[in-house]
Specification:
- It holds the Pfam family DNA_methylase.
- The protein has helices spanning 15-22, 35-44, 94-105, 124-135, 183-187, 273-279, 293-302, 306-317, and strands at 5-9, 26-31, 49-51, 68-71, 109-115, 140-147, 158-165, 195-196, 208-209, 251-254, 257-259.
- The radius of gyration is 20 Å and the shape is globular.
- The protein has two domains: 5-178 and 306-317, Vaccinia Virus protein VP39 (Rossmann fold, 3-Layer(aba) Sandwich), CATH 3.40.50; 183-300, DNA Methylase, subunit A, domain 2 (DNA Methylase, Chain A, domain 2), CATH 3.90.120.10.
- It has 320 residues and is of the alpha/beta class.
- It has a seven-stranded mixed sheet with strand order 3-2-1-4-5-7-6.
- A hairpin with a 2-residue loop joins strand 10 (251-254) and strand 11.
């Protein structure tokens, strides 16, 4: 492709970027304001300019021209587990900075990813306002709720993707794959590499897992998926990381209360940071750098699964 240059906003650890890179695109500029992510992004994308400022303080004229803009504006405001304030939250308003930059740069396409909660009835008016913001710029806009497990990702993970094209391009999302990848396919070979986190000596390959106790909220549901299933959603917090499939399913006691199977308690541990990264389809040479293991889980959990990003990117290529 003659011009493959793209811009990445709200880049996080770079799951979207890596998927697009695998498809032949080149991120030339990225923006991420969270300082706990900078080392990871810079280590893994050494040829990308990383702008570390608050996007609200960045003028569009400071950003290079490009064929496409990709990113995931912060989702906590829309999350069903979050504040539920949507567009009224300062983080929700960051969507309009995304639109502001697209208006100025006029890329051929854009991709915006967000949590499924943005489609909730309570957010309908705000979501339509966002869609109309893109449409008013002349983009043909499509959105769809995709489950990552249908796109070569060993994980049940529903997210909304908004894709816009100039010039009345009628984009269609990629078709789901019939074959699913299991946890055994993804992480079986790592089961003996994982170890409890030692904050004084963090593992340079991310083979460590968080060891604090389990909250009543965590214990209210089964958190174990079997080897032949897909993982639960990898979340942005280590406390709520799924449990390793070596353990039996948690046993029901009463509504909102489960326990570990008696005699098998030693089998229950959270997935390690690297196991979570595998479930998110990051390659093993992608290094997560952190001083606190919870930042590692956060980076991994907030990312777009690499294989899903790749599927979307290859589909976009067909329309360019």
């Amino acid at each position: 492709m003659k011009n493959s240059n793209i811009i990445s906003l709200f880049s996080g650890a770079g799951g979207l970027d890596l998927g697009f890179k695998k498809a032949g695109f080149q991120t030339i500029y990225a923006n991420e304001y969270d300082k706990t992510i900078w080392s990871t992004f810079e280590h893994n994308f050494q040829d990308v300019t990383l702008d570390k400022r608050d996007i609200r303080h960045i003028q569009a004229s400071e950003i290079p021209d490009c064929i496409g803009i990709i990113g995931g504006p912060p989702c906590q405001s829309w999350s069903e587990a979050g504040s539920l304030r949507g567009i009224n939250d300062s983080r929700g308003k960051l969507f309009f900075d995304y639109i502001r930059i697209i208006k100025a740069k006029r890329p051929k396409f854009f991709v915006a990813e967000n949590v499924s909660g943005i489609l909730h009835e309570r957010n309908k008016e705000a979501f339509n306002e966002i869609l109309n913001g893109f449409k008013d710029l002349g983009y043909n806009v499509k959105y769809k709720l995709l489950n990552a497990k249908n796109f070569n990702v060993p994980q049940d993970r529903e997210r909304v993707f908004i894709v816009g094209f100039l010039n009345n391009v009628d984009f269609e999302f990629p078709k789901p794959n019939e074959k699913h990848i299991t946890l055994k396919d993804a992480i079986f070979d790592l089961k003996d590499a994982a170890k409890p986190c030692n904050p004084k000596e963090l593992d340079r390959f991310n083979h460590e897992y968080y060891t604090a106790g389990f909250s009543t909220i965590f214990m209210s549901r089964n958190r174990v998926r079997s080897w032949d299933e897909q993982s639960f959603t990898i979340q942005a917090g280590g406390r709520h990381a799924p449990l390793h499939p070596q353990a039996p399913k948690m046993e029901f006691v009463e509504q909102n209360k489960r326990i570990f199977k008696q005699g098998s308690e030693y089998l229950y541990r959270r997935l390690s940071v690297r196991e979570c990264a595998r479930v998110q389809t990051f390659p093993d040479d992608f290094k997560f750098i952190y001083k606190n293991i919870l930042d590692g889980y956060k980076m991994v959990g907030n990312a777009v699964p690499v294989n899903l990003a790749y599927e979307i990117a290859t589909q976009i290529l067909k329309y360019l």
